[in-house]
Amino acid sequence: MTIQETIYLSDYTPFGFIVEDVHLTFKLAPTTTRVISRIRFAPNPDSSSRDFFLHGEGLNLHWAKVDGADVAPDLVKGGLRCDVPDTAFTWECEVEIDPQGNTALEGLYMSNGMYCTQCEAEGFRNITFYPDRPDVMSVFTVRIEGDNPALLSNGNPADSGEGWAEWHDPWPKPAYLFALVAGDLRNYPGSFKTMSGRDVELNLWVRPGDEGKCAFGMEALKKSMIWDEEVYGREYDLDIFNIVAVDDFNMGAMENKGLNIFNSAVVLASPETSTDANFERIEAIIAHEYFHNWTGNRITCRDWFQLCLKEGLTVFRDQQFTGDMRGHAVKRINDVVTLRSRQFREDSGPLAHPPRPDQFVEINNFYTVTVYEKGAEVINILKHLVGDDGYKKALDLYFDRHDGDAATIEDWLQVFEDATGRDLTQFKRWYTDAGTPHVKVADSFDNGIYTLTFTQETAPTPGQDDKPARVIPIAVGLLDPNGNEVLPTQILEMAETTQSFSFEGLSAKPVPSILRGFSAPVVLERETSAEEQAFLLAHDTDPFNKWEAGQALAKDCLIAMTQGGTPDQGLLDGMTTVARDHSLDPAFRALALGLPAQDDIAATLAARGITPDPDKIWRAHQALKQAIAQHLQDVWPRLLAEMATPGPYSPDAEHAGKRALHGVALAYLSQIDGGTAAKAAYTTAGNMTEQLSALACLLSVEKGTDELATFREQWQHDRLVMDKWFGLQVGYASPENCVATAKRLSEDADFNWKNPNRFRAVFGAMMMHHAGFHQADGSGYNLLADWLIKLDPVNGQISARMSTGYETWKRYDADRQAKARAALKRINGAPDLSRNLGEMVTRILK
Ligand code: 0A1
Ligand code: ZN
After folding, report:
1. 259: helix, coil or strand?
2. DSSP H helical segments within 192-214, as ranges?
């Protein structure tokens, strides 16, 4: 095992030089691309260091010059050092790299014959020698020489001719925002007039044959551009904005200046091949990357510890955008579902870290739900504390003060303090402390005075034993026993470990609705009766808490059922009422009829000191689904009829909501009709949402063999649809068949394991199949280990990400733990483990 070098936030020092400008020439060739750089450096007046160290990895250096004279730099681990003058000078060098051999998809690589880059976080050092750190910003001019029809880089086109093109980006940027794309690509064009009247050329670049999947993405881009002008006053700042779709990509997408690069799965869309969920996700990610132009690019991060400065804020902005486009209530519920199932899980296990970590081994391991989603939640807390006006003032000041900067969380907080006058010392703990606070609630009613008493506690997390109290905005409303709201939503600011709040002048003991809209990312613990939850499900005026009440009921019921209990009548009746309530948005009804995830049940049991049994949880889930299906058997056919969406497909929220409820009704009905209705629905499906939902229903009742075969025949040519075909079979397998199915599919001729989307389709689905992955015989743990060991030398980023499948291993019984530990140890013992996977396994094992 190699020793892992840890990087600390406290060690930050500025680079000794500033970079005045950068000229790069790329002579493209699949295995022998040459990169010639000419960079003007000058001593940095803010630094006393004159250590000229340039990062560089896997580069074949041909020559180097300083001020035109040949030099022989010292090639050292991770880069080079060279003696340089103590005044301004020009550095030049030529390196050779092998894009074809780059399977890690970091730096310059090839995907289906197309050249493509990914430089965040530290990929630029795989392209040429450079101070590859986000606080070194400069103006880039790029010349690309290659016989490819499309030759693209950042900024504005400067000049071009047969076999070459030049680009100039006038905005200083860090190297992680550099991008280059070259290939046989087709552009889907568009245009946009900015608020000050400038014309911007828009393009979506895709492989020939994918032009028909661009229209939605282009519209989403225009909507994002308008929204950022209207809501944040942010205007686009170049003459052109390019988006490229690429099939081999480690993440979702990347915000390179003026040249966003997207995983084709999150930009290409058509009704025949994409589900409603795909459309919504595409719109959100296009917005996210576009919004980065201001929150990330114009204002970037000083160092990678500050990653949530750009990511938390940009996620927060894309969540606001999607809420504005498609409805806030449903968006909030969906965001909280993700937060709880992924971030709470991370925050309560061995990988827990603060939104702003203070140490890391491999930064790529910190592109996490905590940095992104909790980073956004922390901004939501802040907005509750300073109010909408305070937030707006602070954001205006942030853009004003820090445009062109590489900033820190301290800068961000200072802006809020200056704009609102509020002291944010205690609030800052949300950035520096890991772990999810648990908030216990007690109440009393006496003489017309109702009192709520809250107590907060956060369990220790790795490296942080002490958890001082945080400031928590708790949104509360009160209902009278008839279900009328007697106190509209108020924000209670909890700042102490234990704190009480009283409400006077009430004629009867009210029913409290606490943490409305999920006003802070905490676990609320309150001993309530099933009756009270059913009452809130029926009467709460806050849509989030209405949904939450149903989920809490379902969760308690599932937990009771794992211990031999039976389905709760109040839950069944409550669900019936919601399903039939035409005043409720179908999308909301679809969510309210869903059950808490099995992993969530396991987490709740573990938090209560009970060892979860995945098989029992699975059986409880099945039994409750059956009971609901039966109890509402008259409702399903009616919903199927009411929620039909005849006519041309539209991905808008209204139609998507109807299809979602239609899908839920079909899923429950399949539990009692053995799949008859789903079989019919599969045959008549007019779009991918309907086709996939019908197929999933069939698989969940162990039918659908013929449909799987015809689906494959129909979609063999479409790699994105085939990802769904792979994923669905694993995700909907029974627990006993899940691992065997993943194994069988991994032997399929179309299982291209070096493609991250295909790998995730199979093994991501396996990891997320709670009872399947955690089979008592350890087969899930072992199969994942086999594949992570195989993948790691090819793509260490993906192997590391997928190792999070094991992060909950300590929740389970001794036998499962022993099997998981053995699998983890086997991974850890693999020769030449990547730094990525090595760090993850070490942390998970601790
Ligand atoms: N900044 C991008 C995400 C991203 C991060 C790292 C990558 O490679 C390691 C790629 C993309 C975003 O937030 O969208
Ligand atoms: Zn981002």
Report:
1. strand
2. none
Which of 772, 770, 769, 431 is CA-nearest to residue 606? Answer: 770
Q: Is the peptide bond before 121 cis (omega within 30 degrees of 0)?
A: yes
Nearest residue (CA) to ligand 1, atom 3: 254
CA distance 766 to 772: 7
DSSP designation for 583: T
Give the chain's mean pLDDT.
98
In this structure, is the dihedral angle defined by the CA atoms of residues 70, 71, 72 and 75, taken in order, positive or negative? negative
Predicted confidence band of residue 3 (pLDDT cuts 50, 70, 90): low
Percentage, residues of the chain above pLDDT 70? 100
User: Is the CB of 792 inside a 6 Å radius of any atom of ligand 1?
Assistant: no
pLDDT in tens, 562-604: 999 999 999 999 999 999 999 999 999 999 999 999 999 999 9
281 CB-side CA count, 13 A:
16
pLDDT digits (tens, 9 = 90+) for 600-651: 999 999 999 999 999 999 999 999 999 999 999 999 999 999 999 999 999 9
Amino acid at 311: E
Amino acid identity, position 545? N
Q: How far apart are CA 739 and CA 733, in angstroms?
A: 9
* 2, 839 contact by CB (below 8 A): no
Atom 13 of ligand 1 has which residue's CA nearest to it?
Answer: 311
Asked if residue 364 has its Cβ within 6 Å of ligand 1, the reply is yes
SS3 of 688, please? helix
289 tagged catalytic: yes
Strand partners, 192: 200
* CA distances (Å), origin 171, targets 299, 665, 701: 11, 52, 56
Q: In this structure, which residue's CA is closest to atom 1 in ligand 1?
A: 254
From 524, 521, 504, 497, select the one nearest 513 (Cα to Cα).
Answer: 524
Q: Ligand 2 centroid to 472 CA: how many Å?
A: 26
Q: What pTM was computed for the model?
A: 0.99
The secondary structure of 459-508 as a DSSP string is: --BTTB-------EEEEEEEE-TTS-EEEEEEEEEE-SSEEEEEE---SS
Q: What is the DSSP letter of 510?
A: P
For 452-466, give one letter per residue: b (16+ CB within 10 A) or e.
Answer: bebbbebbebeebee
**Percent of the residues in the chain that have a pLDDT greater than 90, as a whole number:** 100
- 142 and 179 in contact (C-beta within 8 Å)? no
Q: Which ligand 1 atom is nearest residue 285's CA?
A: 14
Q: Is 367 in the pocket of ligand 1 (CB under 6 A)?
A: yes
Closest listed residue to residue 575, CA positions, set 491, 504, 639:
639
Confidence of residue 4 (pLDDT cuts 50, 70, 90): confident
Which candidate in 94, 145, 283, 289 is catalytic?
289
First to last CA, the chain: 15
Q: Is the dihedral of CA 547, 552, 558, 560 positive or negative?
A: negative
Q: Reply yes or no on whether the pLDDT at 2 is more than 90.
A: no
Enter the tokens of residue 258: 């003026």
- Give the integer Cα–Cα distance in Å for 106 and 58: 11
ipTM of the complex: 0.98
Q: Is pLDDT of 305 > 70?
A: yes
